[in-house]
Specification:
This protein has 202 residues and is an alpha+beta fold. It folds into two domains: 61 residues, no CATH class; 120 residues, 2-Layer Sandwich (Heat Shock Protein 90). The strands form two sheets. A five-stranded antiparallel β-sheet has the order 3-4-5-7-6, covered by helices on one side. A two-stranded antiparallel ribbon has the order 1-2. Strand 6 and strand 7 form a beta hairpin. Helix 1 packs antiparallel against helix 3, helix 4 packs antiparallel against helix 5 and helix 5 runs antiparallel to helix 6. The longest helix is centred in the middle third of the chain and has 22 residues. It is elongated and about 60 Å long.
């Protein structure tokens, strides 16, 4: 998050100070702080951090592979037809008895994420959806040489100039979590949506 703020707040005039107690905190925490903050303050002295890392490089260095989906997770094979992916998401949301409002949000989020992957790679998108421990998970994969930007989808769309990751921003607003990973042969996205049972009526 602190690495990303260096990019997301660029040009806004916003600045902040993050307090780290070097006497108390473990060295790996202090090392990360030095790598994610361009300037260091000690007492009344400010200096450039010699360890500061490019935010994208730092974010990629912290990525870990996502746990694999269960083998029984419903699968929609690779397709370029975004409408098929949207129908698959809606069908799976209904099959898990997801609250109708959340089901609509999940369907839109899956569609926008699939559109992002298709545009980034030019390749068909594979989709898997399953539920586990009260959460609906949606995995999308697209093969290709393109790699995701670690902060794609975090900047609010600019209505005067469309960006390739604008739809991903909407998907992030509609889900509780959205992870992007550069995998060996493409991009993986994982969305999470809390599962709520429909309200029973008499």
């Amino acid at each position: 998050m602190e690495a990303g703020l260096n990019l997301l707040l660029e040009g806004t005039g916003i600045w902040m100070i993050c307090a780290y107690d070097t006497r108390q905190l473990p060295e790996p925490v202090i090392d990360s702080a030095r790598r994610t903050h361009p300037a260091l303050v000690a007492g009344t002295t400010t200096r450039q951090s010699p360890s500061y890392d490019d935010p994208a490089n730092y974010a990629f260095s912290q990525d870990a592979p996502l746990p694999p989906p269960p083998g029984s997770a419903p699968l929609l094979p690779a397709t370029l037809r975004l409408a098929d992916i949207r129908r698959f998401a809606a069908t799976q949301a209904a099959a898990t008895h997801l609250d109708p409002g959340l089901a609509s949000l999940m369907t839109v989020a899956v569609y926008e994420t699939a559109a992002y992957l298709k545009k980034a790679t030019g390749s068909p998108v594979t989709t898997r959806i399953w539920q586990q421990a009260g959460v609906i998970f949606c995995d999308l994969y697209a093969h290709g040489r393109a790699a995701p930007g670690p902060f794609d989808g975090f900047q609010m769309p600019d209505l005067s100039q469309r960006r390739p990751d604008d739809g991903l921003w909407y998907a992030r607003q509609l889900t509780t979590r959205l992870d992007l990973r550069a995998i060996t042969d493409g991009i993986q996205a994982r969305l999470e949506m809390p599962r709520m049972s429909p309200v029973e009526t008499a």
